[in-house]
Amino acid sequence: MGLKNYQKKALQKGRRGGLLPPSFDALTSGEDEHILILLKAITGSGKTVIASEYIERILTADPADRGAAPVCVIWLSKGNGMLHLQSSDKIKGYIKSASVHVTGLEKSSDFSAPRFYDNDVYVINWEKLYSDNNLVTETEDENLLSALKNTPSDMRFIMIVDEFHAGYEQETYNRIAELIKPVIILGMTATPKVEQLAKADEKIVIPVKEIQDEAMVKLGIKFNAQTDIPPIKGYETQEEYFLKLALKRRDMLEEAYRKEGVDIVPLLLIQFDDERGGKEVFAAISSIITILDDVYSHNANGDYAVWMDIKKNASIKRSDDDIIKNLDTNKVKVLLFKQAIATGWDCPRAQVILRYRKINDSGDGAFDLQTLGRIFRMPQPLRGSYYDNPSLNYGYVYSVDNTYKLEKTFGDSLAEGGDEDSFVNTIDYFRKEEFKAAAKELEELLQNENNTVETQKADDDSLCDEAERLIPTLPWLRHLSAASEALTYQESTANIADEMKLEKDGTFKVQRTGKIREREVEKLFADAIPSSYSYTVRDHIITVIKRELKGSYTPDQRNRLILLNRDVVGQLMKALDDYSKKHAHRFKAADRDFKFPQYVSVPEGKNVESTRSLYGVSSKNYSNPEKIFIARLEDNPNVLFWFKNKDSGQNAFCVAYAVHSQTEPTYPDFIVAFKGGSFGFYEIKDTDDRTPEIPLKKDGIEKRVRELGKKAPGRFCGTLLRVNIKNEVVIDMESYPEFS
Question: Which residue among 10, 235, 446, 670 is buried most deeply as judged by most CB within 10 Å?
Answer without folding.
Answer: 10
